[in-house]
Structure to design on (456 residues):
């Protein structure tokens, strides 16, 4: 990031616009909307702009730009359409240490106009640092569609009650928890429908009642691509006080967390000497302890939290301890892998059922290999890189044909994803030749013949 987003308070501040055409007028309108005192200097001013400036009470000087025009201005806009004139404005601003926006010239601008979403007093600016104004506009349109018109009145209402809340709750952390609780309550709807008296009554009730206890959210991060998280998962990450995440949860997902949340990597590390049971007991205790302190705790897992992720053990512990919890499902790896490889997990003629199995079988577990080897189903194997050869051998030993289609998928939905198709008779060799790395998911069955290699 080479620019710092700032909100300039321009009310009654002097601003200069150099230029008298359509582009200049658009900038003038933006500045007027912020309450700025605008002066225009231009060699040529269109009749339309002259009339509009006159109606708005803007002084217009129809003459060439002079360096001393920028003196005393807080912000200058160069919008002449003449690169030489704009360059002269930029030099003058640099000499006088005045912020300047050169239209369509980010390199020589020390200030840039973002695409603006206005839900006054809530204002959102989107900037691409001058690289693509069209992209910024598209992002603005998407955000506009998400934000209700009632957001502005809500912000005004909350701002008017800050003093009341601060007096009742002098400790900053307590206030933050209170406001989070208030924004999850019916208070928002009361303000949106103009029922201000009832909103005030509800606010007073919440100030005298204890804020509800913390909660643990078991959240599925999906198969890897952050865009494949659910909206509810994103919402929980953005409100979490602390996030306990597995090693396989990528940086792209973690970047969606609230900036001031505490992030704790509790993933297993090879050779650290900590057995699985001890590690899980430690995680369980930390989840419960933080929730009892009133925190919003997220236990973030790759894929879906209840598919091969020890989520069942964690919710059993939380229930036993009386700790509130919820489960936010995610796209499990098997579904994500099938999607990027173009494989239908079920098929009217070839696969009437799907089985999810793990390649890391507990030593006391004895899989029903003849059942797994049946040809009219799809077998999805999680975490099976090391055991792939042995798995394929056991399936063939149980009656599966060596020519049965199979596909190994590495780093699904992430940069560098790989799709290696084959059969259970040769997939082990193909994976070794391709030097695939984990996490690896293997899909076995007739439907695996749909696989497309190394999709971008």
């Amino acid at each position: 990031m080479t620019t710092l987003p700032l909100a300039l308070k321009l009310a009654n501040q002097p601003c200069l616009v150099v230029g008298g055409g359509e582009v200049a007028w658009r900038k003038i309108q933006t500045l007027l909307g912020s309450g700025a005192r605008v002066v225009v200097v231009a060699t040529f001013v269109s009749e339309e702009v002259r009339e509009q400036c006159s109606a708005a009470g803007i002084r217009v000087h129809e003459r060439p730009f002079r360096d001393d025009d920028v003196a005393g201005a807080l912000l200058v806009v160069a919008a002449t359409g003449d690169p030489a004139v704009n360059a002269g404005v930029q030099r003058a601003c640099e000499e006088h240490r005045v912020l300047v926006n050169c239209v369509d010239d980010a390199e020589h601008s020390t200030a840039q106009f973002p695409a603006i979403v206005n839900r006054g007093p809530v204002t959102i600016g989107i900037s691409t640092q001058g690289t693509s104004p069209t992209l910024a506009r598209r992002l603005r349109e998407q955000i506009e569609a998400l934000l209700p018109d009632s957001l502005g009145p809500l912000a005004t209402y909350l701002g008017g009650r800050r003093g009341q809340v601060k007096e009742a709750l002098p400790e900053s952390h307590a206030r933050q928890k209170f406001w989070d609780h208030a924004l999850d309550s019916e208070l928002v709807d009361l303000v949106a429908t103009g029922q201000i008296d009832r909103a005030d009554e509800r606010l007073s009730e919440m100030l005298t009642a204890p804020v509800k206890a913390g909660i643990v959210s078991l959240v599925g991060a999906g198969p890897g691509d952050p865009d494949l998280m659910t909206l509810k998962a994103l919402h929980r990450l953005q409100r979490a006080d602390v996030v306990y995440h597995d090693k396989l949860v990528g940086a792209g997902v973690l970047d969606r967390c609230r900036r001031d949340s505490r992030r704790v990597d509790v993933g297993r590390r090879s050779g650290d000497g900590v057995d699985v049971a001890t590690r899980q007991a430690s995680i369980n205790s930390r989840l419960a302890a933080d929730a009892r302190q009133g925190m919003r705790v997220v236990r973030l897992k790759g894929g879906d939290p209840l598919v091969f992720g020890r989520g069942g053990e964690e919710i059993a512990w939380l229930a036993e301890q009386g700790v509130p919890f919820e489960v936010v499902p995610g796209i499990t790896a098997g579904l994500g892998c099938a999607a990027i490889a173009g494989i239908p997990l079920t098929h009217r003629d070839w696969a009437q059922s799907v089985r999810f199995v793990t390649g890391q079988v507990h030593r006391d577990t004895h899989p029903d290999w003849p059942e797994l080897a049946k040809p009219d189903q799809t077998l999805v194997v999680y975490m099976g890189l090391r055991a792939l050869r042995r798995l394929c051998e056991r399936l063939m030993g149980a009656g599966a044909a060596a020519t049965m289609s199979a596909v190994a998928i590495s780093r699904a939905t992430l940069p560098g994803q790989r799709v290696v198709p084959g059969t259970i008779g040769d997939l082990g060799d193909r994976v070794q030749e391709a030097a695939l790395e984990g996490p690896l998911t293997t899909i076995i069955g007739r439907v695996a013949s749909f696989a497309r290699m190394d999709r971008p």
Remarks:
- The mean pLDDT is 91.
- Residues 14-113 form a domain with the Rossmann fold fold (CATH 3.40.50.720).
- The longest helix spans residues 276-292.
- DSSP finds 17 helices and 17 strands in the chain.
